[in-house]
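Feature request disguised as a bug: please show the residue count (578) next to SGNH hydrolase-type esterase domain-containing protein in the output. Example input:
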Amino acid sequence: MAQNSPLLRVSQSSSPSVLVGSTSDSSSADHSASTLLQPAPSHHYAVEGFFEPDRTFPEELDRIPSGSSVLDAESVVGDFGRTYHQFKQGRYLLPNDGAEQDRLDFQHAGMTVLLGGEHYLAPVSNPKHAIDIGTGTGIWAIDFAEKHPECQVVGSDLSAIQPPNAPSNCAFVKDDAEEEWLFPWKFDFVHLRFVFTCFNDHRRMMREAFKSMNSGAWIEYQDFPVTQIGSMDGQMEGSALQRWAFSVMTGMKTVMGRDIDVVANYAMWLQEIGFVDVQEKKLIWPLFATQEMACSGSPAVESQCPLPFEFRQLLQERSRFKERSYMTSRNEQLPLLRDSAVDPYAILLGDSMIERMQTTGQSASLDIWPSETLLSDISLQSLQQSSTTELRRLPRVFNAGVGGDKFENILYRLQGDPERQLPGLVDLLAPYKIRLWIIHAGTNNLHPKRGLSDASIGSLCLLLQIVSHMAGLRSRVLLTGLFHRTDIEERLVNEANAKLEKLARAMSTTMTDTSVVFIKAPQTVMRNVHLVDHVHLNGEGYRLWVETLFPQVIDNLEQVQVSRVDVATARASSIHRT
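Example output, currently without the count:
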């Protein structure tokens, strides 16, 4: 997946930019150019040799988060414990904490690779004063100051999160670039990177920069339009990620009154303000790892695509320790997963209804599923007669069911428990290409008088979001319905299943390209016939369940395969047309 990041260079009457070119305007002042990074449709541009399959991953990106950060004492605490700037509070939407500082430093490393080891493209010569707007951690300003010891460099930001040990020719100020610039000198170089979310009025900031620049100075923008996320083969057209980008853009405009679809206007605005010789260069900015990169275990990939911080925080808040969950994970499931010579193909996740497939159903974990006890060969042949899809038992199905688990206990197993040295399934399963998740949970969340609470649905929603994130694009998550039982009214079970189905449908249309499919419990399973106690299925109950479930599992896998074949065909067609 790639984001096209163009570079626009502009020469101006007082505003610099990356990518050479300087001319004189009618007032005879030489104004240098600026480079704007903004993506365009990827199929229009190609950058030879960048991240080609036969090349090693750039060393600059082979890093992990530092774990260190600079605290702005005036920060305020927001949602999920993240901190935000207090100065001009609300002007900028992203956090300023350690996790964000690591992201900014990684972003800087990525741009350095993208620019061939450089930090800018403007033909800056012997600058005396330079400024980095929205400097963040100050890493660009520090690098520029070290490269130009004769230049006085200023890094400006709403947050004071820059290190105290910067070079003597580098200083940082807490300032708002949309307000009047009051510096006692004029600048030879103004640098801005990824600022499309930063300003209510970009033209006002440009005018302030223009007034504060020497004749022949350069301004350089490196930015990309959030609405032009795409892929070189067109796969992402109409994807959930594109829809998300438009949702973010709409939300920013509605909630903050800020238009972030602005990058395509930079060149025009700069020219209107007085910059001359404006030029643009487009580069490809990879947003996601390829399969080869993802399988390499590179720290760069791990730091680029972790489970989102908010999910980690919510996991910590919503998960609940249970002795049985901990002991089963530590002593049985995790050793089996780590010591196995085979990779899991699909995951069974949930409570005792899943766990007992191994005992009542005699279907061993990481073995063929379903076992002949769950689904005999005769039954399989009978099902095949009424199916247009070839029904084959699945290989390497990992059983991650634990009896008594509520949604909160399953979240605990996903997260793990560092204090008890228990790895989480999120991290252990990350390296594998899981084709399918089958989830049965909620049995133990049902209240005998109130049914399934909204709080429980919230925990299930988080569980499905996390599993969907792990599953990735064009994978399936199957959520199975709850069975009627002898200790709870049928009405409450039916209401609970209606909530589960509604949640699955909503997530399939709004979350990601991972489909969440609800599969109803078979009506042939009767609580007065097919239970061994108040809730658990007997052998015949499991056979009836799997006879209904298995064909739908295969059908969903087939749909995933078809979508992948369609993609391959589209690629082939485009090659032939070329």
